[in-house]
Amino acid sequence: MAPKITGIHHIALKACGVEDYAKLVKFYTEILGLPIVRTWGDGGNAAMMIYTGAGLLEIFAIGEDYPGQGALRHLAFQVEDTDACIEAVRAEGYKVTMEPTDIVIPSEIPYPARIAFCIGPVGEEVEFFHVK
Question: What does the alpha-carbon distance between residue 122 and residue 125 come to, in Å, rounded to a whole number?
């Protein structure tokens, strides 16, 4: 019998040192408004967990380099207002790679949404996804 999985606990991002760590913290907590759940360590060993509304985002300052893009393609946040999220990141100078767009995923029951993408502080692709 397979083990029971009840959800995703967290997704981790590693910064390359304290400067990138500070950029990540500002992006996710100040610009996107996500609350900090816990922090530990300091300086180059700093880390924290941020609540996303449906799991945690863990951020470390200890990365030595950025890994190439692997199987994880992007972080997608369920949001109330895709356009407001994009305007917040654009106002802080982050690159928007897809403007807010209405889509319909052609599943057996059509799934309408409004989505947009940007590039985060350490090169991670971030999607803002509003179910219509």
Answer: 9
